[in-house]
Fold:
Amino acid sequence: MDENELTDFFWDDLLTFMGEKKVIPILGSDISMVEYEGKKIPFQDLILEKIGDERYRSKRVARFIHIAQNIEVELPPSLQKLAKITDFTVYGTFGVDDLLTQALNEVRYKGQKVTQSIAFSPEAINIDLPKTTPDATVYHFFGKAQSTDSECGLNDEDIMEFILAFPNTQTKNLTLKLQESHLLFLGCGEGDWLLPFLIRIAKNTRLSGIRPKRQEFVVNPKMLTNVCLTRWFRYFNPEFSPIISMDPLAFIDELERRWSLRNSPKGDENAMVTITPSVETAEIEIPQHNYVFISYDGDDRSVALRLSQQLRDYGIPTWVDVEGGIAMGENFRKKFTEAILKCKLFLPIISATALGTDEGYFIEEWAVAKERNKKIRGNVFVIPLLIDGSPVSSIDNEFGSNTSVCKMGSLETLLTQGQLHEIKTAFEKRGGVSV
Structure:
């Protein structure tokens, strides 16, 4: 199917699926096209060119991180346009860099680090999607270069190991999400052998003889030149896996244009899509460091993200480590220490797992908050959130005075209206402004 065959009916169907939040775009690393020294090149390819032929994985990753931190490029327009489409809430990517997350934070959240980023790894835990995802989640199928210990797919051999390990019992929510969604593959030219494997894994069933409930769209003109791959699609899944022979970047331009026309008031396709303060607070001067800090053990990540979203919906800005570790280009310990020393409130999530853990970043976060709390007189600064039945007595000596406990009950419990009001009141007493 070439671009001349993409009728209004095709675009209307795709936009309708998107409006129902049933489409997951999956991006090849070649979508992150940047301009560097007068030429356009995928960001990941640019870094790999500079790394050269390094045989050892740990050195490849270390060099990738170092170069990515220090090279100066603009965010790819294609990623900014995809970030603008708020009908997309979950994005998949084959890239191991952080540009898509950066684009989402910049376009939707005015630079605030709100987007959740999850990286699959054959060895790691906590690599599944939460049951309830935030408004923007990026899933790295082949890992993410965020520390020198990171597992990530920088060549075909690495990618093969990821394919062998995926899916597993750690990715039940992700697998279900892929099965229930239409998949929009954009680019994904990492290897002709790769795409059939991924579609088979995503659907979790044989593709021949079964009528799929969801459709895959493959936007990659190179695919049609591969006779074997084209024949594979036509034989196993002819109706539900159209190969679209259109430049993926041009496809993204057209998709964003049509989505904007459909969703902007009076068809204004130039309208910006950003998360802004409500009308009631738009004229209020927002103070610096206007947020509450949520601290959590890694096993409680899904709880932290769910509570963060609930607090933001209630008008309380949050600071939460959605990366789950050291973000590329940042010293994480310095990052969270500064955030705690400047936040309006500190909200540690207290669970049986957290209380049974001897070491971790969250324990260091508690120590920083405890020291700051000693210097505060009067208004509450620490509000521990007790989950899974953890007793109040378990934190009696943890934070000292200026503490008010919210006991929540089970892992799936959300904050009550009364608890939300209590947190909001404490936030405002310490100079915070709800948005």
